[in-house]
Write a structure and sequence with these properties.
The chain is mainly α. 65% of the residues lie in helices and 0% in strands. The protein has 15 helices and no strands. The protein starts with 9 loop residues before the first helix and ends in a 13-residue tail after the last helix.
């Protein structure tokens, strides 16, 4: 992030300033999401102060200058003597056309509205960014103060129709452990392809969204419904995600068995649809994912799930390369 403050792309500089502003906020022990100020972290933040100061006094737009200035202002108030002293010395001769806090209107430049508009633009760009840049933006949004960014992320879910943007925004919310209902609904929408975009990156995110549904009973029920979708790509994603679920419930290297009744019940409910897919699906890779899911279910750690999978599969042809049953 410190290196990005000197990037030629103004959006990269803005993302870096927002991320570092969020970091200096969370170094305050009173912050609701305070993080431990390790010596290495404090040294890294101190190294960022000079580039932040350069950004603050530059000719960049207020959304960059004022966020950078506010990051140094926060560092100047932290209970870490070396960091506080360095920030204070950098601000001694600095002339920045910004108020002293995000809510200030003294200068008419750096206000909550200014910051909000800058953050909204950053979030909107997730719709079309290439993978490396999207990863950087997601990291910056994860580091930003929750009060600033979470409502904007939730609002974005209602405004965009981009599969990529929906998956990335929901992913940030999921990693923040907030808005669970919104996240699950969005992952379901992306997994079902009910959004715009079918490029390789969007398709990989759609599979990630399907995989994310397997951790909750409602998500497993969504995947089960998608096994009957008219779109072969959607059926394939759902079958692959369920194969991953049953691998975690089994006894192999990926196993993370659970005793949660709701998860096990949802997994059992998926078995009939998987049997149907495994015996009638004409798309070979999709059929193989269904077969793999049933085979893993037959190896489940839970006895009731294992017995149900064996009963559902009895007398059925479950070979990947076998033609669909008439």
């Amino acid at each position: 992030m410190t290196a990005l403050l000197r990037d030629r792309d103004p959006m990269a500089r803005r993302r870096a300033a927002v991320a570092l502003d969020g970091l200096t906020a969370r170094l305050d022990p009173q912050h609701p999401q305070a993080i431990t100020a390790t010596p290495g972290l404090l040294a890294a933040v101190e190294a960022a102060l000079r580039p932040l100061r350069d950004a603050a006094v530059s000719k960049d737009p207020p959304q960059i200058r004022c966020v950078a200035f506010h990051a140094i202002e926060q560092a100047r108030r932290l209970p870490h003597e070396a960091l506080r002293a360095r920030a204070a010395s950098l601000l001694e001769d600095a002339r920045v056309d910004c108020g002293p806090s995000p809510g200030s209107t003294e200068s008419g430049v750096f206000t909550n509205q200014t910051r909000r508009e800058g953050m909204e633009e950053i979030i909107a760009r997730l719709d079309r960014q290439p993978p490396p840049l999207a990863a950087e933006t997601s990291s910056a949004l994860l580091a930003a103060p929750a009060d600033d960014v979470v409502p904007l992320l939730q609002a974005r879910l209602r405004r965009t129709d981009s599969c990529q943007g929906l998956a990335l925004v929901a992913g940030v919310l999921a990693r923040r452990n907030v808005a669970e209902a919104d996240v699950e609904a969005t992952f379901g929408r992306v997994a079902a392809g009910r959004c715009a975009g079918r490029d390789p990156f969007a398709m990989s995110l759609a599979q990630s969204a399907a995989n994310a549904l397997q951790v909750r009973p409602g998500g497993i029920a969504r995947l089960t419904t998608l096994l009957r979708d008219r779109d072969a790509d959607v059926r394939h994603r759902a079958a692959k995600a369920l194969a991953g679920l049953f691998a975690t419930l089994g006894m192999g290297e990926a196993a993370r068995p659970t005793s949660a009744p709701a998860i096990l019940a949802a997994a059992r409910d998926a078995l009939p649809a998987l049997v149907t897919l495994a015996t009638t699906e004409r798309d070979g890779p999709t059929r193989c994912e269904a077969v793999r899911a049933l085979q893993r279910a037959q190896e489940a750690d839970d006895g009731a799930l294992r017995a149900e999978a064996e009963a559902q599969s009895r007398g059925r042809t479950l070979r990947c390369l076998a033609p669909p049953n008439p």
